[in-house]
TrEMBL record:
Keywords per UniProt: 2Fe-2S, Dioxygenase, Iron, Iron-sulfur, Metal-binding, Oxidoreductase
Entry protein name: Naphthalene 1,2-dioxygenase/salicylate 5-hydroxylase systems, ferredoxin component
Pfam families according to UniProt: Rieske (PF00355)
Gene encoding the protein: nagAb_1
Entries under InterPro entries matching the protein: Rieske_2Fe-2S (IPR017941), Rieske_2Fe-2S_sf (IPR036922)
Segments forming domain Rieske: 14-130
Domain of life: Archaea
Gene Ontology MF annotations: 2 iron, 2 sulfur cluster binding; dioxygenase activity; metal ion binding
Cell membrane recorded as keyword: no
Length: 132
């Protein structure tokens, strides 16, 4: 356990990154922890944390836009395609080349074999705590 400004009983690998009331729904914070940038997101009241590093070419992923994505359905017989905007507020897009990631799971929407490393994060006594 270590002493911290918030007087929380934290282990050495646990870090306060924000007050919980500062990281409201739809907000994010990017914190520098042990020399690593970590993005923490509040999406529909749930917290998610990922390295600020894109699996494509290392761009600052967590600085990207959080919005939705387009799902397409193509009918081979009629050759028609229907597009639908969905998942608003849940998709993180890298600012460098636009790769999209599901911010609630870390799954990459562009490459099935690619997934972000999820970092443990929780609310504790009014603070957002990341374990790294
Ligand atoms: S570095 Fe993120 S999409 Fe290319």
């Amino acid at each position: 356990m270590s002493q911290n400004a918030q007087n929380l009983p934290l282990d050495d690998d646990e870090h306060v990154v924000a007050r919980s009331d500062e990281l409201t729904d739809g907000e994010r914070v990017i914190a520098l922890l042990n020399g690593k940038e970590i993005g923490v997101f509040n999406i529909d009241g749930e917290l998610y944390a990922y390295p600020n590093w894109c699996a494509h070419q290392g761009g600052p992923l967590c600085e990207g836009r959080v919005s939705g994505t387009v799902e397409a359905e193509h009918d081979r017989d009629t050759l028609t395609t229907e597009l639908e905007w969905c998942r608003e507020g849940e998709i993180l897009s890298c600012p460098w080349h636009g790769w999209e990631f599901d911010a609630t799971t870390g799954d990459c929407l562009v490459d099935d074999g690619c997934k972000l490393r999820s970092i443990p994060v929780r609310n504790e006594s009014g603070y957002v705590v990341v374990t790294l």
